[in-house]
Design brief:
With about 200 residues, this protein is an alpha+beta fold. The chain has seven helices and seven strands, in the order αααββββαβαβαβα. A five-stranded mixed beta sheet has the order 5-2-3-6-7. Strand 2 and strand 3 form a beta hairpin. The model has no long low-confidence stretch (mean pLDDT about 95).
Length: about 200
């Protein structure tokens, strides 16, 4: 007999006090912008935004170093490991507008490797905070270097910034690229190999 499948239930957990405090502030902001916060379309918006902002910044509650340390394995492998095209969604700390794009991360093991899924998790843990792209790039690199002590780490992030596309200079097609390297990746030959790997599209 086939058991009846339980219906899927989405459970969202938010700090009730923080949600209430943020929602009250967003009511004031919406009113100050000239809107009627009591009308049907906006009535629940302050609470929705309060919850959204908690999710968009949930990286503050994560420990990226512990994420990596939870899945370290001894392995005699000394060739480059690359995880590319990791989706990045973050919030610019200057205007609180999103920036998004791709991160490419590589390291050369020195007796230890890490579970592959942990690298995107670390990227997300740092990205889901108030950020600037330059610092985000360095934080990912430094965290991997500290946790694994590899022969080298390379991080490249390519991102589009809404603060440039929606306001200010309004350049819709601009992309910002940042990079950060340690150890073996500071040598031109190794760095060129990494750049070649992340630029190649496999069929």
């Amino acid at each position: 007999m086939i058991k009846e499948m339980r219906s899927y239930e989405k459970v969202e957990q938010y700090d009730a006090e923080i949600t209430e405090a943020l929602a009250e502030n967003y009511k004031i902001i919406i009113s100050d912008l000239g809107e009627d916060v009591t009308r049907e379309g906006l009535e629940k918006t302050p609470e929705r935004v309060a919850k959204a902002m908690q999710y968009l910044t949930h990286g503050y509650g994560l420990d990226p170093l512990e994420i990596l340390k939870s899945a370290l394995f001894s392995e005699d492998h000394h060739q480059m490991i690359v995880v590319k095209d990791i989706e990045v969604y973050s919030m610019c700390e200057h205007h609180m507008l999103p920036f998004f794009g791709k991160a490419h991360v590589a390291y050369i093991p020195n007796g230890k490797i890490v579970g592959l899924s942990k690298i995107p998790r670390v990227v997300d843990a740092f990205a889901r905070r108030m950020q600037v792209q330059e610092r985000l790039t360095d934080q990912i690199k430094n965290c991997i270097q500290e946790a694994l002590n590899p022969l080298g780490v390379a991080v490249v992030i390519e991102a589009q910034h809404m603060c440039m596309q929606m306001r200010g200079i309004q350049k819709q097609n601009s992309v910002t690229t940042t990079s950060s390297f340690t150890g073996a990746f500071e040598k031109n030959k190794t760095r060129r190999e990494f750049i070649s790997l992340i630029s190649t599209k496999l069929s």
